Amino acid sequence: MGNEASWDWNTDLKEIPVEEWKERFNWVEDFQISPDGESVASIVNVDETAFQVCVNGEVWDNAYEKIWGLKALPDNGFSALVYDGEEWTLARDGEEWSGRFDFIWDFQVTPDGKYLGLAFQKDSEYGMVVNDLPWDQTYTNMAGMTLSDTGTSAAVVQAAPMKAADVDSFKEGLFSVALNGTAFDHTFLNIWDLSFDATGRRLAWGVRLNREAYTVARDDIVWDRTFQGVWKPVFLTPENVLAPVRESGKWKLFRDNEPFWKRGYDQLWKITLSPAKGDIAAVVADSFGKWTVAVNDRTWDLTCDTMISDIFYSADGSCLAAVFKHKGLWNLSVNQTPWTLFADKIFTPGISPDGSLVAVVIEKQGKYHLAVNNRIIAGDYDFLTAPVFSPDQSKILVKGIEKGIYKRRILSV
Amino acid sequence: MNENDAEIIEEATDEAVEKGLERLTSERISEVINQVLHKETGARFKAYVDTCMRCGLCSDACSYFLSNDRDPRFSPAAKVKQTIWEMLDKKGKVSKDFLRRAVHIAHLECNVCRRCSMYCPFGIDMAYMMLLVRRICHKLEITPQYIQDTVNSHSVTMNQMWVKEDEWIDTLQWQEEDGREEFEDLRIPLDKQGADIMYSVIAPEPKFQAGLIYQAAVIMHAAGMNWTMPSRPGWDNSNMAMFTGDNEISGRIARTFFETAAKLNVKRIVMGECGHAFRSTYDVGNRQLAWTMAPIEVVHAIEFYHELLTAGRITIKEKFSKKVTLHDPCNVSRGRGLHDMARKIVAMTCSDFVEMTPNREHNLCCGAGGGVINCGPPYKKERMRNNRAKAEQLAATGAEVLIAPCHNCHSGLEDIIHHYNLNMEVKFLGDVLFETMEKKIYRPGE
Lengths: 413, 446
Hints:
The complex is a heterodimer. By secondary structure, chain A is mostly beta strands. Among the domains of chain A are: 197-260, no CATH class; 272-413, no CATH class. Helix content of chain A is 2%, strand content 53%. In chain A, the strands form ten sheets. In chain A, strands 2, 3, 4, 5 and 6 form a five-stranded antiparallel sheet that branches. In chain A, strands 23, 24, 25, 26 and 27 form a five-stranded antiparallel sheet that branches. Chain B has three domains: 3-143, no CATH class; 158-309, no CATH class; 316-436, Rossmann fold (3-Layer(aba) Sandwich), CATH 3.40.50. In chain B, 52% of the residues lie in helices and 7% in strands. In chain B, helix 6 (76-89) packs across helix 9 (126-140). The longest helix of chain B is centred in the middle third of the chain and has 17 residues, at 247-263. At the A-B interface, strand 7, strand 11, helix 2, strand 32 and strand 36 of A face helix 10, helix 11 and helix 15 of B.
């Protein structure tokens, strides 16, 4: 995104009836809505084994035997994985890639929308394809596919063959990381959680060296210390990597092989950085079953009994929001203060760049509502997708379906 | 050594165990045993060790003891004596022959079914003691080959059967197409953000029993549920690592599972008919991660079918007429108390039901659970011998159809029926529901 200033922030309401699509087509699948809210799309069935993508009532030219993975793109277009003549490819706004595969999945898009990445399988060999360019080298097995923000790609690949139930070969370590298709030298027992730096050139990951020893590798160089466990590492700077590791029964934050935070926790994961302020936040269990957020090794007053599913910083680092579940209901806590809007479901919050506004879609008793700063400002939708603040933060774009009509609304905040 | 001993040792040959034993030094053995017993345990373990007064009341609770003519070596207390107590007495200085036998006892002569704990005057959790032995075996790298391979698979793919990511999605799409034989607009919605339900299965379903996914899709569609299945890893709810003592991988599996559901923003997870997977989500895998209970509600198929039938979302066209009996899986009955709910479903779907005795939380284990069947073909003959009591229990019902709402039980009971020529057919509750339900879409108020 980043071009929000060019969107229409002045028209209060635009409507597209979608209920009538159900009359036109045999069935209509799940709706996807473009970031600017100007387009609503769905996979539709037009014949026994014929599917098309319908955008604002207009269908793409081609029909396919199968379509899945329809996604709204940052440029406000749509892409989907399409199948015809026993081959899969990607179609973007109806235009197909030239590459054809036996299967494609794990569709990822960079935040700026410039790169579209997929996992592919062709002739039982596996690789990634980015913007229609498949890896030169393919592998017998692949997992953990990751597309960086700059369009580089990496995955865990099996570097040597293994027979069925061959625990001896497995013990030797069969897995490497492939960056843009080329595998690093080292093989490991296990590799998880590939993590790029901001440039997309450096890569860190968690490894298991043997049954008991876990550690971190950065660009294939392994930390000296080993641990009882490891979660996803994160680049603090191009040269420094943070990772939650388990040592002496406690989870601790390490930086480049050395202790970084002083405290140990019963759990510590989801390291989240504030690039603007340099703060480091994580989801932690202070003790068994007592979940909270730690910022720079200091825990919030908030304690919840069930789960903190994610945490999000505003661009300026002044606001940190946590999505949490307590006593069976979901809620949001902003800078340690829980909201009063407990819900059945809560979706990814949007935070204004200066951190003063937090918006989130919630679901209560089957109806969707939009809350901003702990107050419901729109409600009773059958479906709502992520809201967007206007560049001057005076308005919010609400995108939802109500009684069979897609509604693009601009509300003041 | 009697003939029985010779047979056990002959059948116990396992390449992974033997190679693992070859690699071990006495120092490594004692180091690992002492580390596990003294650094990874606490008051609970001490209480169990100090409290057992060798009364033997646990013996008759064990189907291995009953199936082996009350051979005292198969008494649960004796299994602890032959493993943990000896390790403690010798301060970890035990021989490789001792370990070979310990591997066998912990992995092949105990289903960690916890029936014995109900008969222990102090409620000692023998399964916990056997799982400690398995934890030691894991660290010493002497876990039996086939179950270790399932854990290896979990660690790489997050499913237990090396199902590749494209194979998983392709199978769902194939079942979706087949399901359109029943309902032309049937879908298996993939990655539907904000669905009410994430439906999850264990890896044998896409690998060998894809028809179960088809049946589940038909039931979901007919009931009008807002549901989804994930296309990415996290779809497999099973957890073999919790049976080999690989607690770290067990936790990683559970995290992937629950975070997949959280990312989809579902209200709850409905799972197919699997017992151990259910336990891994409410008792074991979650607690490895500091979640006291499942962070997203997990609903076993028994609970879900009961909900659909009592809410009228699924109606029965005609009851199943063959004589049926019901096996109570340990992890959902003794572990979670769903046995009466299962009976209510049987009553709503079947016209001729006979109880097997004993039943409910007192039921005998299928003999396959706890990872025993996952130790693979080398041990099948021995498993059949150890399942004699279960075979006798099944035969006494005179039923034509045995309903077993658990995957491990299902497979193990099929082996027993074949081996003992019991002439019974094994079905899941979902099979019965699919056969008897009206294939119409639920509309509120109709």
